[in-house]
Amino acid sequence: MDLFLLETCISGLMAGVMYALVALGFVLIFKASGVFNFSQGVLCLFAALTLFDFLSEKGWFARIFGFALPVWLAIICTIFVMIGLAWLIERLILRYLINTDPIILFMATIGLSFILEGVGDILFGSDVKPLDIGIPQGAWDYLLDNHNFYVEKLEVVAAATAAILVATLALFFNRTRIGRALRAVADDHQAALSVGISLNTIWVIVWSVSGIVALVAGVMWGSKSGIQFSLSLIALKALPVLILGGFTSIPGAIVGGLIIGVGEKVAEVYAGPFVGGAIENWFAYMLALGFLLFRPQGLFGERIIERV
Amino acid sequence: MIYREAGQFKASYPADQAIFPIRQDQVALVIVILIAVFVVPVVIDDYWSNAVLLPFFVYALAAMGLNILTGYCGQVSLGTGGFMAVGAYSTYKLITSFPDLSFILVVILSGVITAGVGILFGLPSLRIKGFYLAVATLAAQFFLVWLFNKVGWFFNYNATGQITVTRMKVFGVLVTGPEATPTAKYLFCLTFVLVFALVAKNIVRGRIGRSWMAIRDMDIAAELIGIRPLYAKLSAFAISSFYVGMAGSLFFAVYLGAVEPTEAFGIEQSFLVLFMVIIGGLGTILGSFLGSAFMALMPILLKNGLVDGLQVEVVTAKHIEIIVMGTLIVVFLIVEPHGLARLWQIMKEKLRLWPFPY
């Protein structure tokens, strides 16, 4: 196989993993609460900003306590912040929107993303911040020297992290009590309620989990391109991944991400020059649309059964 | 007391089927229109026209369009910005290719062209539903904006990639460009909004509007009683895009004068219009007006209040504005998910009994 094509594909796969990381957060929330959470992108941004604040010498934490945290402690603290945020979101917004139309919930999350964006800007400033938590950067020298093959180290780390994350989530969903409760809620809200599962608790948990997933995605994207406002726009990158893989499927998010990543890179390299370039904005959507015409519920989505 | 329809008897079907069957509504509407047509043009100045009323009209038209699609036919669309861009670029191509064409015709033709594009992007709706469709319409949004950025033919190969309006006259009065008086621009937009609001109101009351609502409420059931989803959905996409296209045309030609696609027709525009529709009330024409008034005026009020009133820095004010907007949206959705139009309805109910509610 052509080495260049292979290189393009691998770089596409890696980019796909990054998209999948964001899409994963969407899927978790949609599965458990039926909320199409548009604020996932801003959650990533917010998580990355919080982490940066804990690490930075000039952050709020350092200003108040006089020292910045080491990386591992900062990550734990950020996780707690995300859990607190999830609790607040459930407490202040979701609780009041039970049983409303999906579109109302969707709009509410857009409102939420405005709020988070504004708060993030005011608290942490809107300049670009380089995030460095020790993830190796640059090309993988061994492959570059011996095989003339370019692979980003960061993307390899991201792929490995994503694999660990998905495995952990799978274990969590299948082997723990809470995981079972989550799946019960996803299947049927009312039935879950009637066997004594608290919807509110479940929602806090699921938003916390997707906050943590957002943190992972935010760290990866932040290390790659710096923490900046445009980070919140990766939500738009994750949407085609979602509809391609199906809103309710975790493997769908991963596979969808990979397909979109590869498709986008290959199209950009081979078809881009003919139409003037910059097609990555819409190509993913068109690709997903093409798939949807054959499978309206996405590749791995649950079959849509409609009854009158 | 004030709002009581007791004693207003309808003696014929036409009277019973009137758009505004209650006398108080008729009187109020006539008063509003009279003020809008005769009083406002006299007192209007540049600031009011450009900052407040023109965007209000443009967005009211766009919100009406989206409301037809989302509120009446139940197809969520996030492609409004892209369709507005189609309207704007059609207008540009029409006025540069056929300078002698009447400007009224140009705006309507832009709507027709947008309707065609809307049908094209509406085709997936026959197979895809719900949020899958909403995300699929984003394809239209991104693709169209990219198209207008990349293909030189659309902006006549000029170096900046911007499109700028030429001076267009309607009945000998200049309505576009910086030299046009605020009154002329105002009246031009007002006419469009009034006429097409009336048209929309009638469409949604008629057979076609009812078929949309049937599709919205349950498409399989609608299909079983003999409504063809193909026609219902595509006609909703067509008419909705027609309105949105005209809004885009006015947005470009009358309101802004010069636009750049990424800035003016980005995804924020789509969300803004969707917010207007939801805050105003899904499935009501009145709601489109209330929603666009709310969303167009709110930022101005906030900005004036914060920057001039409280002396906040402009950058901080921008951030506070985002937070307040977000909070308002969330609070609104929690308090009244059916929108401002529903509040208006509740108020009418209350007024009917007031001051003796028992």
Description:
The complex is a heterodimer of chains A (308) and B (358). By secondary structure, chain A is mostly helical. Chain A has a domain at 29-233. Helix content of chain A is 73%, strand content 0%. Chain A has helices at 3-33, 40-55, 60-65, 71-92, 102-124, 141-147, 153-175, 177-187, 189-194, 199-225, 234-245, 250-270, 272-275, 280-294. Chain A is globular. With 358 residues, chain B is an all-alpha fold. Chain B has a domain at 42-264. Helix content of chain B is 72%, strand content 2%. The two termini of chain B are 13 Å apart. The model of chain B has no long low-confidence stretch (mean pLDDT 86). At the A-B interface, helix 5, helix 11 and helix 14 of A face helix 6, helix 9, helix 12 and helix 14 of B.
Summarize the structure.
The complex is a heterodimer of chains A (308) and B (358). By secondary structure, chain A is mostly helical. Chain A has 14 helices and no strands.
Set out the fold topology.
The complex is a heterodimer of chains A (308) and B (358).
Chain A: H1 3-33, H2 40-55, H3 60-65, H4 71-92, H5 102-124, H6 141-147, H7 153-175, H8 177-187, H9 189-194, H10 199-225, H11 234-245, H12 250-270, H13 272-275, H14 280-294
Helix pairs in contact in A: 1-7, 1-8, 1-10, 1-11, 1-12, 2-4, 2-5, 2-10, 4-10, 7-8, 7-10, 11-12, 11-14, 12-14
Chain B: H1 13-16, H2 23-43, H3 46-72, H4 80-97, H5 103-122, H6 130-150, E1 163-164, E2 169-170, E3 173-174, H7 182-205, H8 207-217, H9 219-224, H10 229-256, E4 258-259, H11 261-264, H12 267-280, H13 285-309, H14 314-335, H15 340-353
Antiparallel strand pairs in B: 1-4, 2-3
Helix pairs in contact in B: 2-7, 3-7, 3-10, 3-12, 3-13, 4-5, 4-6, 4-10, 5-10, 7-8, 8-10, 12-13, 13-14
What keyword list fits this structure?
heterodimer, A: 308 residues, mainly alpha, 14 helices, B: mainly alpha, 15 helices
How far is the first residue's CA from the last residue's CA of chain B?
13 Å
What is the overall shape of chain A?
globular
Distance between the termini of chain A: 52 Å
Oligomer: heterodimer
Low-confidence stretches of chain B: none
